[in-house]
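Human:
Focus on the backbone:
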Amino acid sequence: MKITVIGTGYVGLVTAAIFAHFNNQVGGIDIDQDKIKNLQAGQVPFYEPGLAELVKQGLKKGKLYFTNSYKRAVAKSQIIFICVGTPAKENGDYQMKYVYSAVKSAVKGLKKYAVVCIKSTVPPTTKEKIEEIIKKNTQADCDLASCPEFLKEGSAVEDSLHPHRVVIGTESKKAEELLLKLHQPIKAPRVLTDIKSAQTIKYAANAFLATKISFINSIARICDAIGADIQAVSQGLGLDPRIGHQFLKAGAGYGGSCFPKDTWALIAFAKRLGYDFKFLKEVDNINRQQIDYLIARIVQLVGPVKGKTITVLGLAFKPNTDDIRESRSLSLIKKLKQKGAEIRTYDPQAMRNARKVLTDIDYTDDAYQALKGGSALVLMTEWPEFRKIDFKKAGQLMKKKAVIDGRNFLDKEKLRKLGFEYKGVGRR
């Protein structure tokens, strides 16, 4: 099949590479000319395991190409995926101008029937506006659909090849059949529904997962107060099949490009409908408070942080990505700086991105350099290499042997045997 993917950011590039892998002819469009030139040379602009190899494979086989030209890519396309960004406004709602612009530019180049499929996360009530744009800008027969993505950064390729479900929302039987055919190589349950329901599934999924994280962080505070063990509590909860074990890991809270933004957007969307989503507001509030809670744990170990060097290991919002959007680590660093702390930091992948937004901290070449002279180590991203640190050596480098484990990731018994003071989140 002939596919066009508009937007070569995280979602768009993964989508293009996967469908090219399934031997479709896929064109990726982006207005950033430098990005297109780099992609044409097989250079992926962000870190995602396995993606660069898929892109190079698609280019080599002639199944994948990148262009700035809508005319070239769209003219013979059967399915056009809209994968552009929907950044948050100040009130938490989505900015839709990039989606509307992409749809308008895409359908102007249509010569025959095609499905315009929205993969960007959008409010369910945008359906009518997008249909109006399509009607005004093309004479070609055209159907609208929505196939929300459920990718996890760091495992996006695997999630695309082996998803838990494929959601197809459309009111057109013709569009539904075309999308079912495209997804045929992917073995997963199909959810066939209308457009608004498909887009609500995406909203609801991310809000629910964010809720689980804020819930377990609240339970962790109780554990800290009474001396219980959050890891045992999480295990006991997760073994209940009605609850499940995923996203019941206490720590610094959730970040990234999806959970915060989608939570805020659902609150704003509900408000427009006349519903005050107080429950979800509190989920967000708990997540915001978690950084202050971590700082309080740091102060418990080292006293006031003014003038002290604090080592922060991990800048990406999660391992296996260089994405720092809404990173809990960056929020922590900013608040520590406000309190007068000096920050030394290291991350295997995210320092290039972090340097763009944090210029007044000390970036180092490895964890040991970051630890030198530190009054405390704060672990914020669970990169596997951090678990392999020689903490005997680390203790000799540090001014004070104090560890605040913001991800409950490190071996607390080992650290305590080496003379470290250790505090996790809800850990005894």
Notes: The chain has a mean pLDDT of 95.
